[in-house]
Design brief:
This protein is an alpha/beta fold. Helices cover 40% and strands 17% of the residues. The protein has 15 helices and 12 strands. Helix 6 packs antiparallel against helix 7.
């Protein structure tokens, strides 16, 4: 067994309890400890409401797409598996009636799902609700997969998928090792009235920048904040990264025309990259591949190596 594999095995043993891989309930299904430290007993997984694009991707990868009774608007992949599913809306603006009305036997929701009163109403309805931790790290993603698999009584399939994703992270690590000068990257969530909302530390954007071999040009705060023109110029980004979405999209033309970005290395080199939001920031099984694509765009010299990066998670058969 290689050193990375040994380290992963050790980490899996150390984190098993923390991520909720607990014992079987007496005479029933598994008891899962969720993001809020609650022990949730699961007896029926026949009708699932999936709230979070990464959760939906994992469920489909494990072969449970037919059990998904409803999903949220961030669940857009794989398109053929989600296109005809009832939609309960945006994960932070859920309606209790919309979710409960689907008669789910289990709800798997990202920890950021809300609003609070909706989640309280769902809990009051006595529907098993498992909040999935949002930890934007390699280990956090592997733990997420295992937790979802455990809730679905599909530990073997989840281990298969987690191992495939871990191999993809290993490939990505080898790719990053070839980078000699990390670029400064600014992630811009939106540009409204000329003001950019940029990602700081402890965000999915910060982690994807680091996974792709870059350095976050914004390191003075946590989360997402609106910054002024002076801060944009002072950050000196070599490249600007953003997501494509239906509204409030930060387009290339707006970037090129912005007076502050024009004074940065990114503006001078027209280094602007926009990608699908779920793919880029979802922290699901495709995350290593997304980081590979960002790396290939930031560092054209890596194109040959990036081209040989074959995601194991995309081809692994982990269906239950």
């Amino acid at each position: 067994m290689t050193r990375p594999a040994l380290l992963r095995a050790a980490c899996a043993l150390l984190t098993a309890t923390a991520i909720g891989l607990s014992s079987q309930a007496h005479g029933g299904g598994p008891v899962v400890r969720d993001a809020h430290g609650r022990d949730v007993m699961i007896n029926d997984t026949s009708r699932i409401v999936s709230v979070g694009g990464a959760i939906t991707e994992v469920l489909v990868a494990l072969g449970f797409e037919r059990r998904i009774a409803g999903l949220d608007s961030t669940s857009t992949f794989p398109p053929e598996a989600v296109k005809d599913k009832p939609n309960v809306g945006y994960l932070r603006q859920l309606s209790a009636e919309g979710v409960i009305g689907l008669n789910p036997t289990l709800i798997l929701a990202m920890d950021s799902a809300g609003p609070k009163q909706t989640m309280q109403a769902i809990e009051a309805a006595k529907i098993p609700l498992v909040s999935i931790p949002e930890t934007f790290t390699e280990q956090g993603l592997l733990d997420k997969i295992r937790l979802i698999g455990h809730a679905m009584q599909a530990d073997t399939g989840a281990t298969c998928l987690a191992n495939a994703v871990a191999q993809d992270f290993d490939q990505l690590r080898l790719l990053r090792a070839k980078i000699t000068r990390p670029l400064r990257v600014m992630f811009v969530m939106s540009l409204v009235n000329g003001q950019a909302m940029a990602a700081g530390r402890n965000t999915a954007a910060n982690e994807i920048i680091e996974l792709s071999g870059g350095v976050n040009a914004i390191d003075g705060y946590d989360g997402y904040k609106t910054i002024n023109d002076e801060a944009i110029v002072a950050a000196k980004p070599d490249a600007v990264l953003t997501i494509r979405r239906s509204r409030d999209t930060f387009e290339a033309d707006a970037f090129y025309a912005h007076p502050a970005f024009a004074l940065t290395p990114a503006g001078a080199n027209r280094a602007f990259l926009a990608m699908d939001g779920l793919y880029l920031l979802g922290f699901g099984p495709r995350t290593p591949a997304a980081a590979r694509d960002v790396a290939a765009a930031l560092y054209p010299q890596l194109a040959p190596q990036a081209g040989s990066f074959s995601p194991k998670a995309a081809s692994a058969d982990c269906r239950s």
